[in-house]
Amino acid sequence: MKRNPQFFLLVLGLTFFAPGISDKGSALAQMTVSLSREQVIEQAKKEGKLLLHPFLRPNYGDKETIPQLFKAFSAKYPFIQPGWGTVSQTELNPKQSLEELAAGKVVVDIIGFSGSFPKEYVQKNVVMRHDLKAMARDGQLKIPSEMIDETGAIVWPSSNTGIIAYNTDLIPPDRAPKGWESCLDPQWKGKFSVDPKPNMLAWLLPRWGEERLYDYARKIKDNSPVFSRGSTRNLTLLAEGKLFFNCGAYIHPMSRLVKKIPNAPIKMVVPDPLPITAHDPQAIYAGAKNPHASLLWLEFLASKGAQAIVEGNEPGRGSFAVEGSVAHKLAKETNVSICDFNCFANEERILEHISVKIWGLPPPRAGE
Fold this sequence. Notes:
Blueprint: H1 23-26, H2 37-47, E1 49-52, H3 65-76, E2 81-84, E3 86-87, H4 94-102, E4 106-107, E5 110-112, H5 119-123, H6 132-137, E6 158-167, E7 192-194, H7 199-202, H8 205-222, E8 226-227, H9 231-239, E9 245-250, H10 251-260, E10 266-269, E11 274-279, E12 282-284, H11 291-301, H12 304-313, H13 326-333, E13 336-339, H14 341-345, H15 347-358
Parallel strand pairs: 1-2, 7-8, 7-9, 11-13
Antiparallel strand pairs: 3-4, 5-12, 6-9, 6-10, 6-11
Helix pairs in contact: 2-11, 3-12, 8-15
């Protein structure tokens, strides 16, 4: 079994939240809740409700996941009724949604973030200040420290893991891709797909460094990939035999596809290094009316029960910090490149450099 020194060090970072934050925001990680766990539960009983931001709905690709999470949460805390909060508009991109939160035009308790610019949620003071790490350490909450970033207020309960997939009808076992170098093999020129927003390549940064990563991106371009946006779309094209293999896809949409089409002619390759990052950040809204119920929700997301629901619907979506998840197992069995919070802070810059400057593609639309 290979153990990687980066594994379980995702918590190191997010110091990028500090520069430029107001005095109020800079105190974010210094506030704790001076209540015992029993008192947190008693206060949650008085609140009796929990309202999630409606934009959290699409965070889970399987439409059954959140209803099942609600049901399990209600079973554990029958005195709390989970549901959806209200927003002024339903058709907003992430940037507009952030502005709406900052303006207080919502009635919500739990907010989800755009992974593209999480620091701005802290800078605009829309996150309720807690030191969740201290609360977990003191027994008020049960949340793995690896799920909590350095603000102490944001929990990242999911993982994204990058793999390579190929069509088994088009590629025999002896020619199957072995890893990232297969994307540069001339025999596949023009026959494989790459996402124009190459998140998984960006997560290789901790292992490869910028120079090697950019050199690799140039070589991919020389091999004439089919630029196609979205793992679900690329894997569907792959299953239909329109592509030979995909250089970089998420595990969980592949799991959904195989679940839907059990005989789909696609197979996963675990590359070395295996890119992993935390995902789906959630926090308590600064204007939350039910903050204690919200604390219990964040703890619930980190529980094995909630993680089992997520993994049951979308294997590979659970947190690498929780034993039993696909990401946890893979991270223990292979070399990993964990894109921690410092790495994540540079993701947009890395993506733009690869996609626009190296590949010559148009920049993504705002909010993507």
